[in-house]
Amino acid sequence: MKEHKKMYKAGKNWVVASIVTGAMASGLMAADMDNVQADTTTPDASSSTTNSQDSSASEQATIKVQNQASTPQSKANTTESTSESNTTAANTTGATSTSTDNANPASTSSTAAASSSAATSSSVKQDDTDAKKDSSKASSEITSGSKTTADDTQKDTNTGKTNPNLSTKATDVDSLISTGDDIDHQDTSYLAMQLNDPKAVQVYNQLTTTAKQVAAAAKLVLKDITPDQIKVLNKIYTDDQTNVGTRFTHDHLASIVDKFLKGDSSYTIPYTKAKAVVNMPAMQNVKDAKTGEIANLEIWDSWPVQDARTGLVQNWNGYQLVVAMAGEPHKSDDHLYLLYSKYGDNDFNNWKVAGSIFGYGLPAGTGHWSGSATVNSDGSVQLFYTNVTWTNNTNYQRLATLTMNLGIDGDRVYIKNTENDHELFNGDGYYYQNFQQWLDDKSGVDNFQLRDPHIFEDADGSRYLVFESATGSIDYQGENQVYNWDNYGGTAKDNLQRIITLSNKNKSLKLASVANGVLGLIKLDNNEKNPSVAKVYRPLVSALSVSDELERPVIFDINGKYYLFTATRLNRTFDVDSNNEVKAAIGDNVGMLGYVADSIDGEFKPLNGDGLVLATQVSANSRTATYSYFAVKINPDNIKDKTVTINGQTYDKDYFVNHFVLVTAYMSNRGEAAGKDLDSTLAPSFLLKLNDDGTTQVVAKSLTDQGVWDWNEDSTNPSYFGTKASSSLTPEDFTRVEVNDDSGHWKLFDKVTRTYLTGFQYIRSSDKTVYYDQNGDMLYGQQFIDGHWYLFDETSGARQYGFQTIKDQNKTVYYNDEAQMQYGFQKINNKTYYFDKSSGARTTGQRNIDGKWYLFDNQGVMQTGLQFIANQNKFVYYNQAGQMQYGTLTLGGKKYTADRSSGAIKISDGQQYIDGHWYLIKGGRPQTGFQYIANQKKTVYYNNQGQMQYGQQYINGHWYLFDKSSGAMKTGFQYIAEQKKTVYYNNQGQMQYGQQYINGKWYLFDKSSGAMKTGFQYIADQKKTVYYNNKGQMQYGQQYINGHWYLFDKSSGAMKTGFQYIAEQKKTVYYNSKGQMQYGQQYINGKWYLFDKSSGKVQTGFQYIKDQNKTVYYSPKDAHMLYGQQYIDGKWYYFDKSSGAMQTGFKTIAEQNKTVYYNNKGQMQYGQQYINGHWYLFDRSTGAMKYGFQHIREQNKTVYYNRLGQMVYGKQVIDGKEYSFNAATGALMK
Description:
Tachylectin-2, Chain A; left handed beta-beta-3-solenoid; mainly beta; 8-stranded mixed sheet; 5-stranded mixed sheet; levansucrase activity; globular
């Protein structure tokens, strides 16, 4: 990297160092800071390994200064460690002060000298937390090799200029701490309060403005900050760069890692039964594009041919088409094939191969990688792909396209030919890294990526490609990005902790320095079969210092939003330790990220807060390991009913297609990673729910057949439903087989021993434990085995666990984790139950056990505390052991008497507070349900034990809210803080859902959670998009929202699109498909229009387009641009048939076989005209330029116009005869 070259080489001096600071790695708590000085060594080589444990001490390079003027350095004592989280402490003597003169956040160099004392242990503390010692030690940073002292004025590392605010007086604290965009909650008084300490002042004067902001936000103790920490702080900067799009931050990554480890079902890729997975039949005995051999091919990155506008799978002449990368295992799998099957056919066996798109015998060192495809207007297929050439020891990638012409022969689809194959984009160098930039900065851990173009057509007909790339010069990769505060995204404390931790890890630091993956966007011109790039946009998403790979982006619009998905792997991030932790826990680290925006080039917000949508929970070498996730919209035409039911949940058809997408992938890692002959194949697809609140949910029981790209009501295939256990294969899966003998008994046959197995056996493919008797027959129902009762499913034979109802014995029993029936008292899920000691039957109601009375509810749960026995009309009290109590009792500080025989307690009528609960007693009985307390003017609710309830309660199918203190039922709008939502309760206290008309305003509440909606919302049953302000109220008329004007119907609130007349402003404007008012030139329905850049008013008549230096004309009738000859206000004009530009000068009108002349106002001229030194004559009626002899009646002369239409003079030979024309007037002389 160019910046790195500047950093490491200055004149004859080579300076090499790596930060070994770990002092703040424990939450910025106090950490021992031994005095540190650098030793000398040689630069270490970059490692190309990205998935091994980062080694701090073994890889730490301390300072080497080749400077004869330098003072000798003392040797450092180092302690080796191979853990990413450990650090090396170097013990040094001597004291210097630190200068920030040359600290420049635009590079990573520093000439500051470390200052520390051997007798001092410094630390960074949190102001309000007791400091805990940490074994991590501070390190030295890069020094100049000579001592420097802090000057009274120093340079600001953000600007390189002398900063007068850095004086030793340090009085104007407020002026030094701004409200930086990403440094939140800065306490401007916090640093000022510390400046009565000379050490704090000394540290303060050495910090840059940004470092002060960080110190204030993180509440650091100035006097305890070490010189080495100062250097790290002074490298931190903010660039406020908006040209890199949405940032995938360190905070996002930390959250994602946590979700991987927790295995949250919301993100877990559904488990597939491994034994159900098969190699793709269509790829058997296929000709390999490279070797030419007939072989069984494996298939991986694949995509359907889609409608570029809708994103739906295209129905091409009754077929669905898929493009896939495929090839022979262990040989070559980087070429593209076309596959097809009948449209709507879900059968994996029915796919066929049309052939290799690029032919056969393809040369070594070439490849064709992932992309997308759509159908052109003439029926041809436009393929967008990645063209790859092996050069400079890497895959040189370019975005490319070609046209495929296809044919049908019977039931066979074949490739006729291809054309228009050309490269589209090589990286512009500014937004996106080009290959030369990568070569200039080539390192062993950096990858070049420019691939995976995905075609998308917006509502206005504009076509775009989203693709994977890396940042260009606008915000280039480099070690400086490690100190870019904008890349972190967390709290000040977390950000600082991560920066210091990362600066201490050599391997991770190297990876972070080259991590610059982005999702890019370019616009194509209107030539669908031979397109070129019309515009390059800034990245949509960037992962600077976080990840170097965001693969296979997919974008589409749905329900008024633009969704962007990308596949990714944690081992392509900088975080070596987290990747290792996830891989150790799961065995793989792949997933999918998702983002949502209001426009194609808008601000994409990460779904689920951090972007994670999918996370694997199976090992990379599992048969069911998946990758290369590809989201596809669902075609409403595929759904015949008005509703769709998934996992017992029924949705309206419109809601379903606007909130669910199908996710496809390939299965098993390539190269027989799961086992011999287990090739990479297409995986079963599954559904992903897109919630309106920006969250998502994997639908686990939605797996389809393998290779389904276009979901319909018959797509789900339960035979693929698996569990974590059944998602992988073991050697036993290849040696044991279930068989059904002639008598109908299921047996388990062992191929090795050639015997039928007996006893308990675990069947992995079905994830069940069964039992085979001495004859090898599977048993069912209740079975007494080795002194214990077991229960086996009557159909599958699976051993049962937990609560089970034995219907023919009218009892509920419980089987423990060993599936054995339990007896007596049992603690289950923190609840106590009692099971009959003889029959195992669960007890309910009152029961005398060993001379003590107990009470169990109708679910068998033992009760404690005050209870009302309704059929005996008495209150009794059970202690914590569940035993009824007698005699004098003290409940809630008040004494009661329990009858010594019956245990009955007398309680007075009215409201009574007993043992922590309010009761309402009438006639000695507790009241239940809703009750109105007249003297307190409140409605409350008592449960079936008569206890007043508080907070949210679900009662008889409705949610209610009761005051947490008084128990009063709430109505109206209420904010539920713990769920961060506002809801509405009607006069009956019931939570409301959907559209509600309240106090003259329309509101919308989520149909599931009741949360009040704000912002844009699509009302499916009314087929309208509306907008709710931050109070949740539907808006009408013109509204200015997030920098755009919108128009909503004054009656229905429906968002308007297209041309609209604003009567009160007497103007016609245009709103695009997103409802945003448009300005300037706009191409609408095949015609150009012009809208005022300020008011949006449609323009008519003559208009000058400054940036195109042309005058055009817009029809006064319908406002679109006019072309060709136009008669305007009694004058003829001519406008270019392509650009609409008004023409001046000579113009040949081919269809009228005439040449005319338009003056500088664009008006056609007639009669005699003096033009550029020549007289011309134009027909007085048609404007046609005259030639030859012409008589000018008003001048009584005959003149001659040559073939250029110019009047001639003097002697002229015309048609072989000599004529003389007056030299002044041109008149023919006799």
